[in-house]
Amino acid sequence: MIKKVLIWPDPKLRKASKEVTVFDEKLTQLIIDLHQTMKEYDNKPHLPDCAGLAAPQIGVHQRVFVYKMKGEGTCMINPVILEQEGEQYESEGCLSFPGVFIKVHRANRILVEFQDVDGNKNRLRTDGFVSRIIQHEINHLDGVTYLHALSQVKRDLITRKLKKVQKRVAEQERQFNEWKQRMFAEADSGNDNPGGDTRGSSETKESL
Ligand SMILES: [Zn+2]
Questions:
Q1: Residues 46, 40: contact at Cβ < 8 Å?
Q2: Which of 2, 29, 102, 124 has the most beta carbons within 10 angstroms of its beta carbon?
Q3: Conformation bin of residue 99: beta by default, left when phi > 0, alpha when psi is -120 to 50
């Protein structure tokens, strides 16, 4: 199921996530939800490509994230960085910070240990973009965001701006729900109306 991505400064984004100890159907469903949500946001033309999504971003505080590697969706559970070396300093975006791009210092090469959906332990040695995604997502699991790369003044500025975005999104949702209720009410009354087919189809054309 597609979930709502929380927008900063939602306090849930500052809470550290718990280690996963039970590898059951609920966990599989969480990973499916994360993949579906990442794909949905990735397909939105007005948003930049979406390369990763952590469970706390949809309000679930478990150490799980999904990400794209060579175009394929994959996931990491209970990830731990064992080794890191080198440096990279690139611009990053985040679904919880719509429209905000921040240059962040990260390690270049990392060796990360994680579990898969069945609880099996794996290791991945990677660098560059994928390494950056993994470090960004692990930050989310610790309740840390890439805002830490900025001065307090800039953090406050972005937080103020995103509070307005939060309000706008909430208002859009309210309007959409109202519209949905109205449409269902109209559809119901249309069904009750015998011989209303012709009228119904012309109305459909108008609404398009
Ligand atoms: Zn993020």
A1: no
A2: 102
A3: left
pLDDT tens per residue, range 169-191? 889 889 988 998 888 888 777 65
Cα 186 to middle of ligand 1, angstroms = 40
Domain count across the chain: 2
- CA–CA separation, 21 and 77 (whole Å): 10
For residue 53, how far is its CA from the centre of ligand 1 (angstroms)? 7
Residue 162 confidence (pLDDT) above 80? yes
Tell whether 172 and 115 lie within a shared domain.
no
pTM above 0.85, yes or no: no
**Spatial distance between the Cα atoms of 15 and 116, rounded to a whole number of angstroms:** 23
Residue 136: exposure state from Cβ atoms within 10 A (0-12, 13-18, ≥19): buried
Span from the CA of 26 to the centroid of ligand 1 (angstroms)? 23
* % of residues, the chain, pLDDT over 90: 70
Neighbours of 73 (CB within 10 A): 17
CATH classification of the domain holding 75: 3.90.45.10
Report H helices in the chain.
25-42, 128-141, 152-192, 197-207
Give strand pairing partners of 83. 111
